[in-house]
Design brief:
By secondary structure, the chain is an alpha/beta fold. Helix content is 32%, strand content 21%.
Length: 580
């Protein structure tokens, strides 16, 4: 039976109206926009299929498409889209670029905020400068000035850059009248050593002669000097931060992180109080950025059953806790890194093993058996070897792409262990700025042979099964700006352009390419946190996390990298810093 022309038009109108009713409102309410470069290669996607493109199309919280302006315009408009407003397109400056949201694969979120809101001692070139900053802090805080019982906390001093590179003494703090008798707790730049005042020593009373996995530094008369190394720090009765303190610290860190393009942070040691803080925050409102927590408790007995397992948790699904953090040794700067042979500049010590190897092995077995990702702090070659021995045993026959064990720092390794780490599929999680901070004394500590296996980032990529090398900063040990790590990785130079080996960089054969460095702080960091299918590259279907930079860090002269400014930070398609 034929249909009259009027009936045909009526039927078509009904279809169009129904389509608009069924599909229109939800589509109209969905946020959709494109961000483009005037050039065809202004967007670095870190997607090997399309490394550079002109535009990204954002729909709601995800990347809907990438490509040319014509490509994404066609993608944004489908059949029956006559009712839809024209696509909003923003163009960045020709000199600017877009990169995926930047990640820090190893940082300390609340510690950073604490340092910035208390006493920041980084860069102090003498004990006198430390005292001056403490005095300035106390005089600026009437509440502390009038109450000697209030604890004064700070972090960042480094005796290695003082004229006489020796540990300070509790009495040094009492030398300043305004500080005398006060409760002062100051962590070294690496957070492995604490310097306390005479008043704190009095509060502590009688101390043990030895501490397993740590050291109480004593003078010639066996009296404590006020220096506590690694596990000995746990003896100090410094008060834990209150919930209000944690909120202040978190807000400060988030503000600074978003301003430098960080959209994801791996929190490298999160105690139960901090876990509960993050959990409650995520339940009540959306976390300002993505957090991947590494749970940590101190006991040598298994404690995995005391942690909640959190996967894409809370409002917006930005909180994850599926990994744990263990510590094996200390740091090179405080001579606590556990070495196979004595320190070259101090043959009396080979560093500190903070845990017995049989105890560590049992813990790793339990955590792995219960589905936790195992991340272990290792600095020295002895610590790294011990952990690789354990990993090789525990993960034998395991699909390493499912377990993804990590060594945090992996600073000093033998050439054999560098090769073994790659062969086993263990992920080295490194901090390039540590190399350029330590390069002025590392060779003296290690000697000419061991130093060849230290901070060997290019070798790690070359020996890796899948060329995975997540990069972090360890902030507040280093600066929070991820481009400090990018610059250190690709230049092996200080921020002033210097190194012990001159302008070509410190052991320049270990420099990363710029693409390797960018991948390390985006896709590799995502892989190390089981989220490479969701974030880490500007790929269709992934979260719309990206950053607009005012210059092309992939091509500008090395000397211009650190002058880069973030113009916009975007998470889930929402601008959280700057503007498009």
């Amino acid at each position: 039976m034929s249909v009259d022309p009027p009936q045909t038009w009526i039927a078509l109108a009904v279809v169009l109206v129904l389509s608009a009713v069924l599909y229109g409102p939800s589509q109209i309410s969905t946020r959709e926009y494109a961000v483009c470069s005037p050039t065809s290669e202004g967007v670095y996607t870190v997607d090997p299929a399309h490394p550079t493109v002109q535009c990204i199309l954002v729909r709601d919280t995800h990347i809907a498409d990438t490509g040319s302006l014509a490509d994404i315009t066609a993608c944004s408009r489908g059949f029956l889209d006559f009712w839809r407003p024209s696509l909003k397109v923003s163009f960045i400056d020709p000199k600017s670029i877009i990169v995926p949201g930047l990640a820090d694969a190893h940082a300390h979120v609340l510690s950073y905020g604490s340092v910035k809101l208390n006493v920041d001692l980084s860069g102090c070139t003498s004990k006198q400068e430390v005292l001056e900053r403490l005095v300035d802090f106390v005089t600026a805080r009437p509440d502390i000035l009038s109450d000697p019982s209030t604890w004064i906390e700070g972090m960042g001093w480094d005796h290695n850059i003082w004229a006489v590179p020796e540990y300070p003494h509790a009495d040094d703090l009492d030398a300043e009248p305004l500080l005398r008798g006060r409760r002062i707790y100051l962590e070294r730049i690496d957070c492995h050593v604490a310097w306390v005042s005479r008043r704190v020593l009095q509060l502590m009373g009688e101390l043990p002669n030895t501490v397993n996995g740590g050291q109480i530094v004593r003078d010639g008369s066996a009296n404590p000097t006020g220096i506590f190394v690694d596990k000995a720090k746990s003896l100090i009765p410094v008060p834990s931060p209150s919930e209000a303190d944690m909120l202040r610290y978190f807000d400060k860190t988030v503000k600074d992180a978003l301003a430098v393009g960080l959209t994801s942070i791996h929190e490298a040691s999160t105690d139960p109080d901090a876990i509960e803080f993050y959990k409650q925050y995520a339940e009540s409102e959306k976390l300002p950025l993505r957090l991947y927590l590494m749970g940590h408790l101190s006991p040598a007995e298994y404690w995995g059953d005391k942690l909640p397992r959190l996967v894409d948790y809370g409002v917006g699904g930005r909180l994850n806790l599926r990994s744990i953090k263990l510590f094996v040794d200390g740091s090179l700067g405080s001579s606590g890194a556990a070495l196979l042979e004595p320190y070259s500049d101090n043959p009396a010590t080979s560093g500190i093993m903070r845990i017995q190897e049989d105890v560590l092995s049992d813990l790793v077995k339990r955590f792995h058996a219960n589905g936790w990702q195992v991340n272990i702090h290792c600095t020295g070659d002895r610590a790294n070897r011990a952990v690789l021995d354990i990993f090789e045993d525990v993960f034998a026959g395991t699909n390493m792409s499912e377990a993804r064990p990590r060594i945090e720092h992996a600073q000093i390794m033998t050439h054999e262990d560098l090769e073994r780490m790659g062969r086993l599929g263990v992920i080295p999680s490194v901090q390039p700025a540590h190399a350029t901070s330590d390069m002025w004394y590392a060779k003296q500590r290690l000697g000419p042979e061991r130093i060849r296996g230290a901070y060997a980032y290019r070798t790690m990529i070359q020996t890796s099964r899948n060329q995975i090398l997540p990069l972090g900063s360890d902030f507040p040990v280093e600066g929070i700006n991820p481009l400090l790590g990018f610059y250190a990785a690709v230049t092996r130079l200080s921020v002033s352009g210097q190194s012990p080996h001159g302008p070509q960089g410190w052991y320049p054969e270990q420099r990363l390419t710029r693409f390797q460095a960018l991948k390390g702080m985006t896709l590799d960091a995502a892989y190390a946190s089981f989220s490479e299918s969701v974030i880490g590259s500007l790929t269709m279907g992934k979260k719309a996390d990206f950053v607009v930079l005012d210059r092309d860090i992939m091509t500008v002269p090395e000397s211009e990298i650190l002058g880069t400014e973030v113009l916009a930070t975007v998470i889930d398609g929402e601008v959280v810093y700057g503007g498009l």
